[in-house]
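INPUT
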Amino acid sequence: MATRSAATQDDLRRHNLARLLRRLHEGGAASRSDLVAFTGLNRSTVGVLVSELADVGLVYEGAGAAGQVGRPSLMVQPSASSAVVVAFDLRVERTVAALVGLGGDVLVHKEQRHKRSSYTPETALRNIVSLVGSMMGKAPSPATWVGVGIGVPGIVDHVDGRVRLAPNLGWVDVPLGDMVREGLTSAFGFAPAVAVNNDADLGAIAEHARGVGKHSRNLIYVSGEVGIGGGVIIDGRPMTGAGGYGGEVGHMVVNPQGAMCRCGAKGCWETEIGRDAILAAAGLGGDQMEVADVIAAASGGNPKAQAAIDEAGEWLGIGLANLVNLFNPEVIVLGGHLRLLFPLVSGTVYRRIHYALPAVREQVRVEVPSLSGDSTLLGAAETAFEALLSDPIDVLARAHHAAAS
Amino acid sequence: MATRSAATQDDLRRHNLARLLRRLHEGGAASRSDLVAFTGLNRSTVGVLVSELADVGLVYEGAGAAGQVGRPSLMVQPSASSAVVVAFDLRVERTVAALVGLGGDVLVHKEQRHKRSSYTPETALRNIVSLVGSMMGKAPSPATWVGVGIGVPGIVDHVDGRVRLAPNLGWVDVPLGDMVREGLTSAFGFAPAVAVNNDADLGAIAEHARGVGKHSRNLIYVSGEVGIGGGVIIDGRPMTGAGGYGGEVGHMVVNPQGAMCRCGAKGCWETEIGRDAILAAAGLGGDQMEVADVIAAASGGNPKAQAAIDEAGEWLGIGLANLVNLFNPEVIVLGGHLRLLFPLVSGTVYRRIHYALPAVREQVRVEVPSLSGDSTLLGAAETAFEALLSDPIDVLARAHHAAAS
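OUTPUT
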């Protein structure tokens, strides 16, 4: 509290506008009575705030959903065609992009494959600018473009969008946020808010806002790719740590007698449950192989593949028990190849989690993502909406101004 | 933001009063100009707020500290004799208590030794009630008694003050918060806010508010007692987790080939750096021995004691590197016997922390507590002041009413 910015009359109005819009964006349509109950403000104040949001087109009032008892009441709804963002999930071998409207609707969804070896930051930038152009060309009129969100498989300074290290892209110290802002400005004469974040952090944000952790306050997202990434939500907010780099769960040492990790330590969690570890244990090396191939081999009766899965299950459980003891989460969400692995080893995983202290583990559940592989992409959209949701009127005024200039 | 309570006019006033009082309590005396700069409010609003706090006696204005350049300006100061709390640190073999005034001054400090075997919850309650009586007898007049804070070496539900498990006290599922509220009410006809928390969580709160982590936003306190406890501050606020039980760093598995822990898992951090582990490795068992004895033996040339210290240093570093990767803290504070151990093994510890990812470790420093063994006690005082600091006028009005009835 002590360092939060001052609360003046004007802050109060902005704060309440922001709260209303965020509620509608995250929770969908609501009656005025719902909003009165949600905010604790009186009916006339809510009316004034709704009118102010409606005047700039961010919300509208219309008949509620069918199936309600009695006469359908007027519902306040976020207008998906009022404000849009373009979201990106930059992966090792493909770029996934979406045009997303206020309220979270995915309006356009695109994938482009690329060669890992030639995917430099400059190539990525060209793809991003070109995809923004084609997506904004399909944006509903009169939508205001309020942000771009980008997920990167690496360590990112979320304040300025600098990619410190993305080992599997081979990127070191890339000022991606600045590059994208400049690229968009030179292509379109304007750049909205640009947010760049770690992919697993975005997975956590999306699964918490709209996915399997929707009603939780404390969530950990663990993504299994070549490496093992993590994103942590504490008391409803993303945990960043001192520099924005918290949640590096893949480099938690769980087996000091284990294999050497590319980070230089021995026995990181990643060296036990990362893709390469599972492939190697199964004797299925090679660039084209995936954890899905190990699972297929095991179900076809390959004992070495089955042993690799069993072993990965033990280590998955040991690491998750640590996270439970440390963070006391309500939900752990397993993405990437862990999503495929978990159903096969859930008994082992829960047996290991049972070693966490009883009070700490009693609320936890382990889940797979409910956003069908798009957790990172949708998390990127959420971060792109953040500026608008924090100060709707101001951001919209500046965006209109920029568009008009 | 979405679930925070509504912001009405009255909320705004309370919020600003609370911010001012918290600033003065945590940061000490400030000029009106400092408070204008801190709050961003205008001078007349700050004047009204200061007057309101002065009217109820919580603050006063007086000459500033000597040594300033120029004419001393009037400083707004928290009044240590306006509101007091009684704080307790319940340890395995002694009870430490303090009477603490608003602003954090320790007015009275007491220690009572007790036998571990006979220290039941009922005995603890009798001690607490009797110490409150003798301390409040020494409270300055007209101080209002606004809270009691208690630290317990165990797993505590901080919402209702129930001790779920305090293994070294032998307490299981003890409703300590309710017991203390009832005990105080029957002894004094009134009980103020009673806060019960885990000892390491309180260490983290105190070192963050007033100690070596004063200007940090992300801090981890690791306490070495019989067990290894932890408290975590994330972005300026204590991390609680789903049930208030986060931060159980002692049961992070770091050595699955290691010794069996009393929690049932194998190779917990506690089985490598806990007191008993270090004593056993040094060949110095026995109830009366402490880590200090191992250190003395090593400095006297005992090679087994030296080897135990070296080994504990390696494991301390491995565990801290994990915490750095997971939480990206600015400060790690090592309390209890780790405070004695750290200066002897700091080279090893930093070498191990160097295995954490570069971006994640670049801001971290490892410190020993600066509150001379009283971190838990002073953290308990902070939690006891929390109700007053959140809503000063309301809490004071209710306390006066209770005293008058």
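end of record. Chain A touches chain B through 71 residues (CB under 8 Å).
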